[in-house]
Amino acid sequence: MTGSEARAPFITFEGIDGAGKTTQLEALCHFLQSRGTPFERTREPGGTPAGERLREVVLAEAMQPETELLVMFAARCEHVQARILPAITAGRWVVCDRFSDASYAYQVGGRGVDAARFALIERWVLGGFRPDLTFLFDLDPAVAGRRLAQAGTRVRDRFERLDQAFFARVRAAYLERAAREPGRFVVLDATRPPEALSQQVIAEVQRRWPS
Q1: Which of 34, 64, 95, 194 has the greatest count of CB atoms below 10 A from its CB?
Q2: Is 15 within any annotated ligand binding site?
Q3: Phi/psi at 108 (5° precision)
Q4: Is 109 a residue whose pLDDT tops 60?
Q5: Is 16 annotated as a binding residue?
Q6: What torsion do the CA atoms of 190, 191, 195, 197 make, to the nearest 10 degrees?
């Protein structure tokens, strides 16, 4: 499935750890709920029982970068086929915390997996399926690191514990991906106040889907 004319929208939220994307995803969900739009909120890795078990593994266990990529796409394959496509074809919007762009940013940009190998796996698992709209919350890794340090006592997963050099590569890969698909991506300055970002997100959704 590649077209979006006969189905509900699929919207994703992306950004490095600490960029505040989950807060903005919640704001959009509140907006959709307030206008009576049927939707599902989900996340990657995860979104299905099998995906959530794979999430536990990939966030806790050290593994080779290629293995990491394959686990991510295994969870994504199940997610798309078992949850995302059924929802959007039934008329329910899907709002997702991360998707394939995150694998490009973290595994290709951050880990150094070959981009051609990534593209091959992405085509095999997704074909031409992509989000209709992707919000990328762009933030300097140094600022993101300070935010995470101030976030409290929550135990960080193994990705969140990586250094700023890793997240600088991830950020660069995200921006590279966004530059290649300007019609799908909306890049937002994550240093702006959360309320202002929420207004931008909702305004963009209303612009694209006014009804």
Answers
A1: 95
A2: yes
A3: -80, -55
A4: yes
A5: yes
A6: -30
Given its phi and psi angles, is residue 47 left (phi above 0), alpha (psi -120 to 50 degrees) or beta? left
- Please calculate the CA angle 147-151-156 and round it to the nearest 5 degrees: 100
Is residue 198 over pLDDT 70? yes
In Å, how far from its chain's centre is CA 109?
15
The reply to whether 202 sits in an annotated binding site is: no
Residue 172 has which token pair? 């660069």
Q: Is 132 annotated as a binding residue?
A: no
17 is in an annotated binding site: yes
Instruction: Tell me the domains of the chain and their CATH numbers.
Output: 10-208 (3.40.50.300)
Residue 137 pairs in a beta bridge with 15, 188
- Binned at pLDDT 50, 70 and 90, residue 3 comes out as very low
Q: Is 55 exposed, middle or buried (0-12, 13-18, 19+ CB in 10 A)?
A: buried
Check: CB of residue 84 under 8 Å from CB of residue 96: yes
- Is 89 labelled a binding residue? no
Span 125-175, pLDDT tens digits? 999 999 999 999 999 999 988 888 787 645 566 676 677 899 999 999 999
Q: How confident is the model at residue 70 (pLDDT cuts 50, 70, 90)?
A: very high
